[in-house]
Write a structure and sequence with these properties.
By secondary structure, the chain is an alpha/beta fold. It contains 14 helices and 10 strands. Helix 3 packs across helix 4. The termini are far apart.
């Protein structure tokens, strides 16, 4: 395995590319949907064939009813659950798998709380290479496990949490050179995920949002989206930057704690949250996350599982957008921040994963659901509701 850590500063490596220096340069790639539309901003040669499932290009939806409840006017949901495998991971995976396959990789590996595994398995299938995933035993939503199986990946359960799975996976990869690691320590993942910033900017009519609110687990996504917005500004395409609002679960909030206490390192915790995708106690990209939060004059806060589940139900039942628990933490956070963000601010919540992946946490009360057998019974029932 190649090393992704700088030997001098021990930070994770980052790819730097001279970008397109004009808006038309960045947005002008016609005929390519989503992520690969931004090929000029990705560190891959033009002739490399993308391993793609048409990822990216997800909707940015104005959610006025939820906005009113949290004291805002311009609240948007970037619905990343509409990616091919149902989460934002596909943005990064298309780029990292393309790069790995270009370099001759045959065996892809990752540790995962579920979505990375599902995404990697899908892109490995698309590329015709083998996928091996490690997951924390008993801590992954069943919809994600079903995806991994269906896409034909080999799955290994690890005793412990995600942090243990990542640690032993990286150790194995350092000893077996055939393994290519697809976790977000791989900088090509970050390159794909940064395209979300470009899309948001375009979908808002070439405007940078005032706030970007997103869930933080291993902290790759906050690093990536911040990188995307910074590039837009450095290339002269935009003139401002958003405040990044990083949200963790109360039972897994090492980055929030470090940020609040002004510390330059995170203290690993034993994670425990119903939002299994962000059940991470020792995030790999914590340094980049702290930089994004501090440099953007952002906010870091945690929400309880109860607040998360309530926010998830509210988004689904008032706006028709069903997200997984981790994706509801930004909305739960906005409730807590009510009155602290200017009413007229443009706020984008990154809803990272589809609700169908994690059905365990929705208690369907089938026993109390009406049961009919005749048209008369149905008419009488509907008449009472009408
Ligand atoms: C649905 C979902 N939301 C948020 C996250 C957190 O992203 P990151 O680990 O990049 O912070 C994950 C990571 O697995 C995820 O699957």
């Amino acid at each position: 395995m190649r090393s992704y850590v700088c030997t001098r500063c021990s930070n994770l490596l980052e790819l730097v590319k001279d970008g397109p220096v004009s808006r038309s340069g960045l947005y002008g790639e016609v005929g390519q949907p989503g992520v690969w539309r931004f090929r000029k901003a990705l560190p891959l040669e033009a002739e490399v064939k993308a391993v793609s499932l048409s990822e990216g290009g997800t909707p940015l939806v104005l959610v006025s009813r939820v906005a009113a409840k949290v004291g805002l006017k311009w609240l948007y949901v970037k619905n990343e659950g509409q990616n091919p495998s149902g989460s934002f991971k596909d943005r990064g995976m298309t780029v990292s798998v393309t790069r790995a396959v270009q370099g001759g990789a045959k065996l892809l590996v990752c540790a995962s709380t579920g979505n990375t595994a599902a995404s990697m398995a899908a892109y490995a299938a698309r590329a015709g290479v083998t996928a091996m995933v490690t997951v924390p035993a008993g801590k992954v939503a069943s919809g994600k496990l079903a995806q991994v199986y269906a896409y034909g990946a080999k799955m290994i359960r690890v005793e412990g949490d995600f942090d243990a799975a990542l640690q032993i996976t990286l150790k194995a990869a350092s000893e077996i050179k055939e393994l290519s690691v697809m976790n977000s320590i791989n900088p090509y993942r970050i390159e794909g995920q940064k395209t979300n910033a470009y899309e948001i900017f375009e979908q808002l009519g070439y405007k940078v949002p005032d706030y970007v609110v997103l869930p933080v687990g291993n902290a790759g996504n906050i690093s990536a989206i911040w990188k995307g917005f910074k590039e837009l500004k450095e290339w002269g395409i935009s003139s401002s930057l958003p405040h990044m609002v990083g949200v963790q679960a109360a039972g897994a909030q090492p980055i929030v704690e470090a940020f609040e206490h002004g510390r330059d390192s995170v203290r690993a915790v034993q994670p425990k949250t119903i939002a299994s995708a962000i059940n991470i106690g020792n995030p790999a990209s914590w340094k980049k996350a702290l930089v994004a939060l501090r440099d953007s004059k952002g906010i870091a806060l945690a929400v309880t599982d109860e607040e998360t589940i309530a926010a998830r139900m509210e988004l689904a039942s008032t706006e028709g957008i069903f997200v997984e628990p981790a994706s509801a933490v930004p909305l739960a956070a906005l409730k807590k921040l009510k009155g602290k963000i200017e009413k007229d601010a443009t706020v984008v919540c990154i809803c990272t994963g589809n609700g169908l992946k994690d059905q365990e946490s929705v208690k369907v009360q089938l026993d109390s659901t009406p049961l009919v057998a005749t048209p008369e019974q149905l008419v009488s029932l509907l008449a009472k509701t009408a």
